[in-house]
Specification:
mainly alpha, two-stranded antiparallel ribbon, globular, TrkH, cell membrane
Length: 455
């Protein structure tokens, strides 16, 4: 290494030391997206041997790293095996997170994790304490590879019966990684996703299982494995599990009832097929982006309900996006507390701290503003109807990947808007706001309090 290279590394190291943990996370995701875009723009990444265009490559890379699943070109027909493997790697790295992947490299190299790196890990994993972070990261990696491994084996067994051994195994691995990371990318081709397998119990069951566990959050899975008894779980785990079950069950009942007689969706399916399709739609709508039904054929109420589920999303420290199940639960309980004229927000006989409540409200408000702003801008740049645009932007923010068919028709400006929305949804609206904001010191002086009329 010559002197100039040494100076450049020193400057880079000094620059990183001055960054806040939130800024390191944001820049880390941005750098990964850029590298992915460059790789996917290579002629070797395309089946035709010609570049798909940098904006399309960047869009695909963002969608993969942000584990969204929105695509402007068909993954199976447009990308070569090299391009598809790049996408799968981006999904894996994006799903696990920048610091989890960095920790894996440090552990493999035998490098010590510094205090600053632990602080960034704490921010990345959304933890309240620094203790046990490296152990939790090891658990995250082990859990991920176990779930993906089991899913890959089960899917490979089914896919080999359809596509042959080599292609079946390849499809099994790709879709297991995509499902557990709630990405929604598929290799079925022709933008069909899993619609050809709407009544296949094995594919539906395995994909739903991977989506649910990937969306629960690594903290909850770790807590479940350690304590097992629901009564002994942390309040966070109890809230996440309760909200997940409520949303899954209510989603299934809603889709089943609304689509039961719709001949374009559930109407022509067998009784078992109706149950599978409604259940799959309930599971995938909050964060995954796979679909066994043509979403443009859904009834209007089902489309609006899907938007609602996509906005909520998955759970904290998971592979999914949205405002998160726990955030939604806190906001609902806060509303109940105000209406019931109670002083404290209480869940499972525990008081929720005020900073938790403020954070939940801020996340909800920023998310609404982000979706509204993105939708407003797309109404200017695109020719689609408002519902399709709202559906698209909510899907991008929630890193879901479901669409009513306008993704491939987006203008260049529209693609950039969706890229930014996906990015904001993946890193989190609050994390992004804190990264862009300046350091704020606690004020030494407190001003007098005065009420403002609201409502």
């Amino acid at each position: 290494m010559d002197f100039s290279e040494a100076v450049e590394i020193k400057i880079l190291h000094f620059g990183l030391r001055k960054l806040k943990p939130t800024q390191i996370l944001v820049f880390g995701f941005a750098a990964l997206i850029l590298v992915g875009g460059i790789l996917l723009n290579l002629p070797s990444a395309s089946k035709s041997g010609q570049s798909i265009g940098f904006l399309n490559a960047l869009f695909t890379s963002t969608s993969a790293v942000c584990v969204t699943g929105l695509v402007v070109v068909d993954t199976q027909t447009q990308f070569s095996t090299f391009g598809q493997i790049v996408i799968m790697c981006l999904i894996q790295m994006g799903g696990l997170g920048i610091m989890t992947m960095a920790t894996l490299i440090f552990l493999l190299l035998g490098k010590k994790i510094t205090l600053r790196e632990r602080i960034v890990m704490q921010e990345a994993l959304n933890q309240s304490t620094l203790s046990g972070l490296v152990k939790l990261t090891r658990h995250i990696l082990l859990t991920t590879f176990i779930f993906e491994g089991i899913g890959a084996i089960l899917l490979s067994i089914r896919f080999t019966q359809i596509y042959g051994i080599s292609k079946g195994i390849y499809y099994g691995v790709f879709h297991a990684v995509s499902a557990f990371n709630n990405a929604g990318f598929d290799l079925i081709g022709g933008f069909k996703n899993f619609t050809p397998f709407v009544e296949d119990p094995i594919i539906n069951g395995v994909i739903m299982g991977l989506i649910i566990f990937g969306g629960l959050g690594f903290t909850v899975i770790h807590d479940l494995l350690l304590k097992r008894n629901f009564k002994h779980l942390s309040l966070h785990s109890k809230v996440v599990i309760t909200m997940t079950l409520l949303l899954l069950v209510s989603g299934f009942i809603t889709f089943y009832c609304l689509e039961y007689s719709n001949l374009k969706t559930l109407g022509n399916l067998s009784p078992t097929g109706k149950i599978l399709a409604a259940a799959f739609q309930s599971v995938t709508a909050r964060t995954a982006g796979f679909n066994t039904l043509n979403l443009s054929d859904l009834t209007m109420p089902s489309k609006y309900f899907t938007i609602f589920l996509m906005f909520i999303g998955a759970s904290p420290a998971s592979t999914g996006g949205g405002i998160k199940t726990s955030t939604f639960a806190i906001i609902i309980m806060m509303i109940y507390t105000i209406l019931a004229s109670k002083e404290d927000v209480e869940i499972y006989q525990r008081r929720v701290p005020m900073d938790n409540i403020f954070k939940a409200v801020v996340i909800g408000v920023i998310a609404l503003l982000l979706v509204f702003t993105s939708s407003f801008l797309l109404t200017i740049t695109e020719k689609a109807d408002f519902l399709s645009i709202l559906f698209e932007t909510t899907s991008a923010f929630g890193t879901v990947g479901l669409t009513l068919g306008i993704t491939t028709e987006l203008t260049s400006i529209g693609k950039i808007i969706i890229i930014l929305t996906m990015f904001a949804g993946r890193v989190g609206p609050l994390t992004l706001a804190m990264a862009l904001g300046s350091r704020i010191n606690k004020a030494m002086i407190r001003f007098p309090e005065e009420r403002i009329l609201v409502g």
